[in-house]
Fold this sequence. Notes:
The complex is a heterotrimer. Helix content of chain A is 23%, strand content 33%. Chain A is an alpha+beta fold. Chain B is mostly helical. Chain B contains 14 helices and no strands. The two termini of chain B are 30 Å apart.
Amino acid sequence: MAPDAVIDREQTAAWAAAPVLPGPVAGQASPGAVPSNHGGGITLEDVTVSYKGITVLERLSLDVRPGEIMAIIGPSGSGKTTALRAVAGFVRPTSGRIRIGERDVTDLPPAVRDIGMVVQNYALFPHMRVDENVAFGLRARREANEAVRAQVAACLRMVGMEGYARRYPRELSGGQQQRIAIARALAIRPRVLLLDEPLSALDAQIRRSMLDELARLHRDLPSLTVLYVTHDQTEALTLADRIAIMRGGRLIAFGESQAIYRAPPNRFAAEFLGHANLLPVTLEAPDAEHGLARARFGASTLLAASPHGLLPGQGCLLCIRQHDITLRPAEGPANTLAGIVRAVRWQGDLHSILLDVEGCQLRLSCTPLREPPAVGAVAQVHFAAADASLIPEEAAGNG
Amino acid sequence: MASVSVPMGQRIRFDMRNVWIAPPLLILAVLFFYPLSLIAGVSLAGGGHSISLSHYTAVLGSALFRNALLHTIGIALASSAGCLALGFTLSLILSFVPFPGARILARLIDTFIALPTFLVALAFTFIYGSAGVLNESLMRLLHLPLAPVDFLYSPWGVILAEVTVYTPFVMRPLLAAFSLIEQAQIEVACGLGAGPFRVIRQIILPAAIPALLAGGSLCLLLTVNEFGIVLFIGAKGVITLPLLVYDKAIQEFDYPTACVIAVVNVALSLSLYSLYRMIMSRFGGARAGLV
Amino acid sequence: MLVWSRLGRGATWALLALLAGVVYGLPAAMIALASFSGQWNGVLPSHLTFVHYIHAVEGNSGSQLRVSIVTGMLASAAALASGSWAALALRGMLPLPRRMLDILFFIPSAVPSVSVGLGLLVAFSHPPVLLNGTIAIVLIAHFVLISAFTYVNVSAGLARLPPEYEQIAESLGAWPGYRLRRVTLPLITPYLIAAFSLSFALSMGELGATVMVYPPGWMTMPVGIFALTDRGEIFSAAALTMLLAATTLAVLVALSQIPAKASAR
């Protein structure tokens, strides 16, 4: 099928240094240099989108730094696609402003916003060849023939599809078509690349290799700001510098990928991003000795990180990821709990064990065991205090 | 994909977008609505510039007009019923008792839509006319002195011709609707012991109702407007409204009368068209009916 | 599968053959037979001949064929342009005016064709716009009657076009005119061709309005066929009808062969 894409570093450098389009975008410096305000960041200020009485986006404020990849994730109906389309210009905000770089683009049509867009079903023009597809934006802007040809070749090389210029989209596989769609979006040298669930239509195998390619593309185009919408947390965690979690049109959580994963700010973020165990605990006191807090869980005392400013006496949730719980003793300040094994499931590359710990369910995953514990046996589980974090307990239905 | 996007154009460029509709609208107004309004004007013209209903009272009261109106409506209803019956039967067999070539047969029948309607009327002359195949055969076989079959020169001839020509308009939405019925449903029903007629009555017919309504109302509209068939069959006693308009205007140069009849005809057609639109919007997707 | 037994299936197919044969096969066969028949006094014609076709191609009828084709092509091209324009313009409108205009654009085909002809006569028989007796009035009549169908066809095609194509084109910097030319129209080409085909077929068979407005020098085939039957020359009429049907089908088949590279998913 498709050969593994090889990102040609030299070609990318040539692409980046090529003469730019006339237009609002300033000339670019040498490749590799991080431009100060050149690439656009994206700013959404209090953006609300309502339609026929339904509020699809509610006062969304988001700030994407120039050159970073931000992922917006959330369940369907969360408004993430609407937010993306508002940035693109296909949805008009009822109120609020949108900025790309320094420009307020809220009132501008999509054609002048200097964006590139990639959608789930590729939307390659079926009546045009691959090279005509990639050249479309350049020709629409009346670039000279020579420049267009050179740019098309460069973009196709960048996504590893240089041999396919004269084919038609229907002759290509899904992954190949998506690469052409990306090349087409990048051909016009946009400041911002918008991706709307670009991998959802692809098979799992292709999805993995495409994720690698997207990561490589971003490394080689450091000035490109990327906004990536997906419902798949693996894609978000793999690619994004920062993640925004949305639900019901609102921003639920927002932060650096690792930070938001290790120390989620609320319950929804904890459960949506990775598999989380949530134990109801009561905060007793911050433990200054280890920089950790002490919390009471039933009869036990547990140590955990508490980065969200909780007060002693507060009821909260202790979040510990499945893969951070082990059957062997952990290092450093650690916690130990005893529980009854309820289920043991082998899943090929891991064992998933469900325990009952003082009435609460705890699920742990580990590399496959030669002798897994028996169902009904009592087992001791351990986890490092640094891997656990305390989350405020919210009233039901809060976002 | 979010289906609640508010398209850009609708908010900020409202006025500019709508300007584009002007040219076709203008052409439509000048070439169609203006002449139509003039027809209404002529029908209402009294002496000088006054409006009078004298033409209306004269025409609407005349036996000729009432005769034509009754014929028009009667023929339309009978033809539509015939189209529904024939179309349903043919579609049923083609969809549910298939054979190799069923699709081709459906396409062939569909081709009749592209042909002029009077073709069938002309063909009928050769088949059912007084010197046609049927009569000649019967006369020879049964040694009859006179042609026994003369329904061609009665409304029944027109009805049969119209059924032939307009059944494809019923078959199109029906075939589409039938293709959406899951084969599994019918197999389960037959497995549970239902005979074919029960399956038709209880499974197929309910699913076909929207298509039948759409096709039937469309047939009503088309048969009320039909001109070529009536003209070609040319039976003395069978006059419909369109034919009457033609006679009055072209043969007798009696424009006021022709306009009155045209107004009634147009009103009738527009009512049937509204009925058709209402049915379509009630039952949604069967838009395959019209083209 | 509704009927399972072989007997039942056989009986059903026999019914189908009977119905389809009598209703559709018989008229088609009879017209064909009549067009070739020499003398027809008995049950079947006594001998077959080409003479009616020869008469049809020479003389008046030859010019009628030309007239019909020219009228069909011109009226269909104009109707396609007008209908497509209307369909495209209606896309960007709010739902309510859009529904009203949608109904409005179809009304010319919902009213009897004779009334359309009468209207044109009444409206354009006096100076300053004197079209009565010209070729233009026939073309206009055909145009008015068939533009509704092109509009409906092109609207249906546009409705089936996924919006992503045009949106991506817009995001790449293409202004509306460029988008229309390079993306929208190529993608709906199959519908444009289908609309043209249908319009052409309808125009070739149009009788009601034509017979009201045609000038002596511009007689279309349907009018000519009617004149022949009125005079009693039914065999010539049959031959001419066969020519009409054959020409219409030939053009339709030729149009359907135009390769459409675009297959919008």
